[in-house]
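Incident log, support desk, overnight shift.

02:14 A customer reports that sequence design results differ from what the structure should imply. Their input is reproduced verbatim below. On-call engineer (initials T.W.) acknowledged and began investigating.
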């Protein structure tokens, strides 16, 4: 994971990039079958923080994520030819307060899935 934080006035902006490689396999000794899948994905992230005061901040974040099909789904997914990874984009908007005596946080989340396996 690489990231870089840039501070400009009351703003803190963090850009990040993570690269993931996932390999999954399934061996069935009874049927004598072996199935495997592998995925690579760059996952960018952006975090923006605005300092209202020393104690109170507003923030907005977005990050990418992905995951392989689950172990129990590998055989079915490989046979159907549909072996795309599950991808998601997470969005978060919120505020944090911490003055040493009181700490509070409120956030809203939205997760958009692509190729979601059930």
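02:41 Re-run completed on a clean worker. Output:
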């Amino acid at each position: 994971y690489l990231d870089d934080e840039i501070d400009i006035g009351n703003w803190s902006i963090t850009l990040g990039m993570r690269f993931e490689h996932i390999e999954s396999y399934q061996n069935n000794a009874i049927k004598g079958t072996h199935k495997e899948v592998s995925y690579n994905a760059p996952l960018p992230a952006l975090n923006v923080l605005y300092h209202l005061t020393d104690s109170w901040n507003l923030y907005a974040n977005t990050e990418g994520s992905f995951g392989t099909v689950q172990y129990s789904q590998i055989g079915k997914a490989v046979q159907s030819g549909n072996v795309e990874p599950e991808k998601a984009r997470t969005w978060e908007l919120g505020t944090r307060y911490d003055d040493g005596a009181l700490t509070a946080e409120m956030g809203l989340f939205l997760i958009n899935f692509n190729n979601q396996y059930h």
